[in-house]
Amino acid sequence: MSRILWKLLATTPALALGVSSGVYAAEANSSLLQLTPGELNSAPTSLTTLPAQPTTNLAQSLPAMRSSPSVSSLEADPLAGTLAPAAPSTQPQTQSAIGSRAQQSIPQVTSVSQLSDVNPTDWAYQALASLVEKYGCIAGYPDGTFRGNRAATRFELAAALNACLDVISDRFATKEDLAAVQRLAQEFASELAVIKGRVNNLEARTSNLEATQFATLTKLAGNIVINTSDVLGGQRANPPGPGGVNTAGPNIVDNLIVSSRTRLNFDTSFTGTDLLRIRLQAGNIVNYSSITGTNAGRLAYDGDSGNTFQLQKLFYRFSPIKNLTVFADANAGQWEDNTFTFNPYFSSGETGALSRFGRFNPIYRIYANSAAGVTFNYKFAENKQAGTSVDFTLGYLGGGTNTTAPGGVTFDRSPGNPSPPGGFIGDSYSALAQFNVRPVKSLALGVTYVRAFGVDPSGGTGTSGYPGSANNPTASAALSGGVGNVASDNFGFQFTYLVIPQFTLSGWVGYSSVNQPQGGPVTGRNASLLNWAITAAAPDLWQKGDVAGLIFGQPPQTISTNYTLAGNPNITPFNTYHLEGFYRFQLSRNISLSPGIISIFNPNNNSANAPIVLGVVRTTFQF
After folding, report:
1. Are 453 and 501 within one domain?
2. Strand-strand pairing, 612-622 and 324-331
3. Does pTM top 0.70 for this prediction?
């Protein structure tokens, strides 16, 4: 008997495996889907949570570029909104695994050769072979491994020893053996009693959870953003004046604003690898373009529903074949949710950049409101060891409502169709193609093309509010927003580079060629838009989870146009600049505080306007 005990001790790192595997497997199969974070919005993506962002290979292959605890149920994944089932725990069970239930769930190992990670050269090979083949009281993990290098606790030793002795005592025990067993049982009596109590408590809590859980397949997660902001200085952005004569707008008189936004995500998985998301949202965060006179000053998370909950998003993500991920959007489809945006620390509206422009290239915002569609992401190649990969994304978002001009006149929204029927095909649309490559582990590159019709080519950022602005580049003033029958070809280049683990550089450049093919008050007009930015992120400066961020660039602005009208504004290309700095304090796993400053120089391409400065403090709660 003493030899048996010595062999059992020699294999201590995995003693509990033989009796734990059955319950482990049963519990893993019945557990709820665990989701990591995205918001879906991207990076900081996480309920310390969905990259989040679509499950593109590039996002998954940048582990060092994670955004700290963030939104929804998104974990520190550079891709905001990425949600995936968590791997089951590999820690062996203790007392709960003891009994015939375990023996029935996992067949007993009859030969040491059945354990894939045990080799004849291992120092405890003979002892383990004897326990497995002679005494039959050691099994292994459900995946056929033994994991002999793993340390074991006294609790695990007590549980495994007790189960093993139950197997061998009737067949091999002598009087001396039984006396030794009795001494061991007395020595571990207190530990076994504690384990039994813990198991009984867990069984009671599990039964209560099963009886009161929200749903067997659905997980509820969400976040609350509380915004405190004020315009610290500047003048309301006047448009450029005709004939080269520019005038400044009036000084902005603004009060301190405290507002909020709440998101509730109902995430359901039917297979463990798919995701059905239903999002409800309510908020009252002001759109600062109404105060500053320019879209360049908008916040990353603005939106006002009068604090009434609305269906903000509905999509289903699944993988029909290996390496292919499909996103089916039924409501409010967004490119930033379906592809990698190359700005991992800034892409999340909850924990990333404070401004709308600073989150990512505005090319990802060129889509119609309430659009529906489908997006495909295919991973061509991946070398996990080298950290290299190649991905391709292709998608279409269509639908929305026709633009109505003043007086109730609805202009054509579909080329060749004077009476557009609307819907998925006949209304405004946006089609995207993106190629992602990661040539080395620390660098990711991407090129993007978006073809759009009836959609604001500036993505709700940049200069606005006058003929020739980025959101009205062909000066179709008779149309609401100036995009009712405007077509655009949009090109983007993005990169992100991990310089060192504590410093990441990202950036982009975007170019749009806009034309008005037919319909409306004018035809044949065209214009060119440009934007670019460089972002720098320094994570974990003060404590783990903190991020210091700096953004500098030029939001979308018209750099050339062919139209000439009376009162044509004097547009100065490359004139508006955006500078933003913030620091995110990760106060706890679920709470972050992000104070920062947003400055807009020469807003609306008018150098007579004083810089607009916004002070912002964003507090994010995740649950």
Report:
1. yes
2. unpaired
3. no
